[in-house]
């Protein structure tokens, strides 16, 4: 066991944990004020649900040896998971710490998908869906990619979760959003507090450094490359988004900057430890532009439900990043991977990356639909007319984020 690596991963785990509260604020500022707490609760409650689901079964079927499709049950209930290392899973750090680091990835994935159904899905059915999603979608894909499953044997690579985290959550969020949105009005609400969104965006941005750099599991040359690439990609994604926004709308919005930065971060995630700095810039700029086009042009034209653009940023950015990894991956940067298209002219690597991404898209879409249909057979998924009118905060949680009406009445009584 290496204590330096252990301390390093411990700090990165805390940074990744910070992403979920950060995303809750990012999403919370984008919705109507009457639904702000419900939106925050969807992310914060994910911490609770994922913790227990991951502890009981998720970690085991993700990382125990098992077969090409699903891990085994050696680690059920965190059995055999302690301070000791695992030569095959965590050779440098305690297995329990590795387990927690991976738990944070699963938690932020759930938080991401909640953006597609913000203000539209009833809370209890959402919590049920989260538990089932971890077991039947996230954990199998994690095993395919990182647990020795068929995607890793195919030769596809995913440095820090472009496929495992972003494609699964983005696609699942889209399918769930469309299913819930059928029959409901297509309404575009103005964000109620972009400063809260800014604070949340900053926390997610900061946490991403733990997300990508920690995926090296030691602070070595690869970790340093991924750190630089992650810093570069955030700015490059924002640059790509804002350039296109200005060209089409003659504005450069704060929300555009934050969305572009997240798009760049998503796009670089599968490639962060595999590409050089210039490649990171190109990947992130394409990610920012691609996500902008999907959200502001394609989504507007097709009118599908993706409330806070979880699919537009994470699903689309994840697919772009996975494919572009095959274009720019460099053996010189990381000797664990072969050279990509720009070095060899061979499309084989891209086809492998594309096959893995498309398989994850199809699997996530089909299983999400099945889980949602099963839950729907017992209880409605969509919010009621009363909840839409009054707000989810008051009805579901018995709380309000703001007290504008009460404050105005007090001011009138006091003649302020």
From TrEMBL:
Signal peptide: none annotated. Pfam families: Ammonium_transp. It is found in: Cell membrane; Membrane. Residues 8-402 form the Ammonium transporter AmtB-like domain. Its main location: membrane. Keywords: Ammonia transport, Membrane, Transmembrane, Transmembrane helix, Transport. It is a multi-pass membrane protein. The keyword Transmembrane helix applies. InterPro entries: Ammonium/urea_transptr (IPR029020), Ammonium_transpt (IPR001905), NH4_transpt_AmtB-like_dom (IPR024041). The chain crosses the membrane at residues 6-31, 43-63, 95-114, 126-147, 159-182, 194-211, 223-244, 251-271, 277-298, 310-330, 350-372. It comes from the Bacteria. Belongs to the ammonia transporter channel (TC 1.A.11.2) family. PANTHER family: AMMONIUM TRANSPORTER MEP2. This is Ammonium transporter. It comes from Staphylococcus caprae. The gene is nrgA.
């Amino acid at each position: 066991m290496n204590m330096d690596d252990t301390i390093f991963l411990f700090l990165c785990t805390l940074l990744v944990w910070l992403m979920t509260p950060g995303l809750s604020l990012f999403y919370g500022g984008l919705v109507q004020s009457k639904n702000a707490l419900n939106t925050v609760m969807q992310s914060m409650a994910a911490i609770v649900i994922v913790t227990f689901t991951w502890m009981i079964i998720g970690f085991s079927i993700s990382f125990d040896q098992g077969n090409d499709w699903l891990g085994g049950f050696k680690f059920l209930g965190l059995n055999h998971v302690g301070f000791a290392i695992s030569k095959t899973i965590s050779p440098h750090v305690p297995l329990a710490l590795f387990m927690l680091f991976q738990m944070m990835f699963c938690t932020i994935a759930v938080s991401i998908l909640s953006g597609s159904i913000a203000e539209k899905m009833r809370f209890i059915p959402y919590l049920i869906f989260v538990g089932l999603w971890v077991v039947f979608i996230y954990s199998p894909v994690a095993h395919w990619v990182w647990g020795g499953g068929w995607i890793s044997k195919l030769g596809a690579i995913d440095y820090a979760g472009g496929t495992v985290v972003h494609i699964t959550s983005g696609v699942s969020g889209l399918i769930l959003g469309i299913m819930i949105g059928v029959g409901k009005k297509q309404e575009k609400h103005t964000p109620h507090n972009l400063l809260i969104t800014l604070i949340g965006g900053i926390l997610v941005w900061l946490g991403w450094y733990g997300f990508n750099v920690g995926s090296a599991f030691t602070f070595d040359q690869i970790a340093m490359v991924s750190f630089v690439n992650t810093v570069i990609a955030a700015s490059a994604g924002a640059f790509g988004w804002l350039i296109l926004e200005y060209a089409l709308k003659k504005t450069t919005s704060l929300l555009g900057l934050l969305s572009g930065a997240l798009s760049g971060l998503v796009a670089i995630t599968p490639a962060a430890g595999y590409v050089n700095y210039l490649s990171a810039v190109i990947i992130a700029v394409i990610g920012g532009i691609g996500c902008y086009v999907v959200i502001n042009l394609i989504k507007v034209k097709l009118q599908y439900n993706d409330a806070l653009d979880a699919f537009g940023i994470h699903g689309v950015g994840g697919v772009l990043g996975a494919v572009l990894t095959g274009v720019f991956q460099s053996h010189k940067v990381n000797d664990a991977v072969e050279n990509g298209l720009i070095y060899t002219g061979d499309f084989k690597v891209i086809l492998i990356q594309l096959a893995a991404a498309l398989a994850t898209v199809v699997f996530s879409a089909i299983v999400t639909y099945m889980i949602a249909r099963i839950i729907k057979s017992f209880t409605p998924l969509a919010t009621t007319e009363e909840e839409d009118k009054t707000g989810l905060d008051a009805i579901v949680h018995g709380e309000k984020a703001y007290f504008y009406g009460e404050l105005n009445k007090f001011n009138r009584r006091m003649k302020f």
